[in-house]
Amino acid sequence: MSSYLYQQLEQELRQAITQGRFLPGDRLPSIRQLCQQRGLSKATVLHAYERLEIAGLIEVRPRAGYFVSRPVPQRQLPAVGTLESKPTLVNVTEVMGDIMTQSAVFDLLPKGPQSGSPPQGVVELNRCIGRALRGQRGQQHHYYADPAGSAGLRDQLIRRYQRMGLNLPAEQITLTAGCQQALFMALMLCCDAGDVVAVESPGFFGVLQLLESLGLKVVEIPCRPETGMDMDALEQVLQQWPVKACVVTPAFSTPTGALMPAEARHRLLALASAYDLMVIEDDIYGDIGFEFRPSPLKADDREGRVILCGSASKSLSRDLRLGWICAGELQPRINHLKMVNLLSGNSFVEQGVADFIATGHYERHLRRMREQLRQQRDQLLQLLDQHWQQPCRASEPAGGLALWLELDADIDTLALYRRARQQGIIITPGALFTSQSRYRNCLRMSFDLPWDEKRRDALIRLGTLLD
């Protein structure tokens, strides 16, 4: 009889889904609700849900319940193509400066009047920082903090990394003014002017700006939207050129959102050992994986070849300008560089963030943020399917803040930038993610912010500009 009951419930829910009474993304009744409403046992309801999940009709989300699965379109991923493997000096376009001036690096619209309440996590963060400020005693404001940063925050970061399989001594982590400064110091530590650095392509334009400012040469390695940096291509470059360092984002790299698989991570470390290469890991997006938090590449580092750079700017707040760097035995040189360039950080902000993490607010904030970002990614893909007549290939990242679009070859997104700018729309052209003359028909599209009426309208109008 129990077999008949779970099959009956399964068939009823299956019909409700296929007939559209439950739509993709809708939350289904909880196990408890169905037990109470139908007079069924928990095992019966659970068995019916398991069969629907195996069939791909529903999905379970931890701590949230059961939801109708969204259809997975058969998307074509953006192509990788061929790259010029000769090291060159970098010349980053001025378009990036205009985008920064408009405060629209992760938005379609220039920064305007802000309405509504900030996220609960940010509210709690502000309270923690406020408590740290109110706890100021005596002449504390007359003194500089430890150049390495707040011991309390470093301890909290070490505890988080320990849960990811990375054990760090307290003296091997230094707080910085954001991840960009951490990457800057890592490059200064590893390289001299004229040295060759391998980077992902398409890759983070901030790294290209750093290489340009330090007079370093860049050699670009193809980055696949599904697996990240191509290890075969990297090995060929290492055989040909004296590469001193490799900058890589193993977890949800920008702009493609790629997640490097375990096999590629292990091979990267093996190549670093074989060719005496330092690996600079940009781990800024690791905390915002939708399904899980990948362990840092440095957790597998046995030779001290990985310099780990991280930040809370993407996962918590841009205003913090708070990052960190872990360079192993090279940490004393990092601390010296920080003293020369920054002296010390804001101790009250660091204390407040330490309290925010220690009290569990950060993990709760991440759970909410991950689910919201996943929904906004899905909404963006649906909007593109529904409203853009122009065919495009899109990555579908499992974390991070953006996806990568490849349009028809005859579309120039730098020219599109100027036309869109006149209509109050800001885009991030593909040409910014390379030092070569490439990706001119590509765009990075962010899903960092909710798709409210104004952003939906901007996305639809951008599609008409493409037509």
Catalogue the unreliable spans. Answer: none
Number of strands: 15
Span from first to last CA? Answer: 59 Å
Question: If helices are DSSP runs of H or I spanning 4 or more residues, what is the number of helices?
Answer: 15
Structural class label: alpha/beta
Helix % is 40-55%
> Rg from C-alpha positions?
24 Å
Q: What general outline do the C-alpha atoms trace?
A: globular
Instruction: State the order of secondary-structure elements, H for helix, E for strand.
Output: HHHEEEHHHEHEHEEHEHEEEHHHEEHEEH
Instruction: State which percent range the strand residues make up.
Output: 5-15%
> Mind summarizing the main beta sheet?
9 strands, mixed
Q: What's the average pLDDT? A: 87
Structure characteristics:
467 residues, alpha/beta, 9-stranded mixed beta sheet, 4-stranded antiparallel beta sheet, 15 helices, 15 strands, 41% helix
Describe this structure in words.
It is a single chain. Strands 3, 4, 5, 6, 7, 8, 9, 10 and 11 form a nine-stranded mixed sheet that branches. The chain has a four-stranded antiparallel sheet with strand order 12-13-15-14, covered by helices on one side. The chain has 467 residues and is an alpha/beta fold. The N and C termini lie far apart (59 Å). It has helices spanning 2-18, 31-38, 42-54, 95-101, 120-134, 151-163, 179-190, 205-214, 231-240, 262-274, 331-341, 347-358, 361-387, 413-422, 453-466, and strands at residues 58-61, 65-68, 88-89, 174-176, 196-201, 217-224, 228-229, 243-248, 278-282, 306-311, 323-326, 393-394, 402-406, 428-429, 442-446.
